[in-house]
Specification:
alpha/beta, Rossmann fold, 11 strands, VWFA domain-containing protein, signal
């Protein structure tokens, strides 16, 4: 698969417009209010690496700042990256890890309201013959884990993909699968049925609110191994894995069995390299709680630490309320990451 420079340039332009604010780029550059995209230059092919050469200061070759040179997107690919290289994804596999606590009702409703436009952009992207991607896949789990030190959270899915069997509402038609394949006219409607309430089938149980999205990610990966319930969702070498975390709480460190470093290492191993997946975290601020018309959100230092470790990571402020901006910026990052997906390491 040859890197399509025109598509790459468009994706890069979109991401820069959406995510790089007055700081002029650089790792952790602030974006439009409430959104931060974390693109540390820690590996080959990150946005920050592509924006700069030399000492990575981000300045252009104008005699100032050490002679680094900005990418010249109007030239052939070899002008900036050397000879054309094999890159790009055929599939985009998106896992939503949703906080199911009652305080998330407004946020989940807003996700539902904005999802049709999210789907339409994915449809257009995979439908463009200039892109390598030909399809996408959506799956949903929750961030609750059954076994906790101080009791049980029995509505947790422990990283298993939700089967669409709702507790109190009509069941969702998943076509006998644990995920939704697109493009398809029914994608948005099916997701709207699945995403708001992905709970285990226990009508006498309650969720204790001990959200553990990092454990949920690692359990999802374990269940995606051969013979696991999630087997087949992630399509391996040809795929970009995208994980979207939506929560108004931080990871419960008192119950968690992992760390941000541990979860990143698990993802690196599972996908074959840290450039082969995207993490979009829509949560509270790093250091303080926040309030909005959608309710309040706790500070989320652990989730911020995790996302900032991921080269293709994006942080969105859930107290912004309307998730449209965060989803738009996530789409720009997903498209860029798909266009530049490297082969697995090793």
């Amino acid at each position: 698969m040859q890197l399509r420079l025109a598509s790459f340039a468009l994706s890069l332009s979109s991401l820069l417009c959406a995510c790089v604010g007055d700081h002029g780029g650089g790792a952790g550059a602030s974006a439009t209010v409430g959104i931060t995209t974390v693109m540390h230059g820690t590996g080959d092919g990150t946005l920050q690496d592509l924006l700069t050469t030399g000492d990575g200061s981000g300045t252009t070759d104008d005699g100032v700042g050490g002679g680094t040179e900005a990418v010249k997107l109007d030239l052939a690919a070899s002008a900036d990256f050397g000879p054309l290289f094999e890159a790009g994804c055929e599939y985009i596999d998106v896992l939503f890890v949703v906080d199911i606590s009652a305080s998330m009702n407004e946020e989940k409703a807003n996700l539902d309201a904005n999802f049709p436009s999210f789907v339409s952009v994915l449809d257009a992207y995979v439908g463009d013959p200039g892109n390598e991607a030909v399809g996408y896949r959506l799956g949903v789990t929750n961030s609750s884990i059954v076994a906790n030190k101080a009791g049980k959270s029995s509505m947790g899915l422990d990283g298993a993909l939700f089967d669409g069997d709702n507790l109190f509402d009509d069941d969702c038609d998943m076509g006998g699968k644990l995920w939704i394949d697109g493009p398809d006219p029914s994608v948005a409607a099916t997701f709207s049925c699945v995403a708001p309430d992905p709970k285990s089938s226990c009508n006498l149980c309650t969720d204790l609110g001990r959200e553990r999205p990092l454990d949920a990610i690692e359990m999802f990966l374990a269940k995606a191994a051969p013979g696991g319930v999630n087997e087949g969702f992630y399509r391996g070498d040809a795929s970009l894995l995208v994980i979207v975390l939506l929560t108004d709480e931080d990871d419960d460190v008192d119950n968690s069995t992992t760390t941000p470093t541990g979860t990143k290492a698990a993802l690196d191993k599972f996908t074959g390299g840290e450039q082969r997946y995207v993490v979009v975290t829509i949560a509270g601020p790093k250091d303080v709680s926040c309030d909005s018309v959608f309710g309040s959100a706790d500070a989320a230092p652990t989730l911020h630490a995790f996302t900032s470790m991921v080269p293709n990571g994006m942080l969105g402020d859930i107290c912004q309320g309307d998730l449209a901006q965060a989803l738009d910026q996530a789409l720009a990052l997903i498209q860029l990451s798909c266009d530049t997906l490297p082969p697995p390491v090793g």
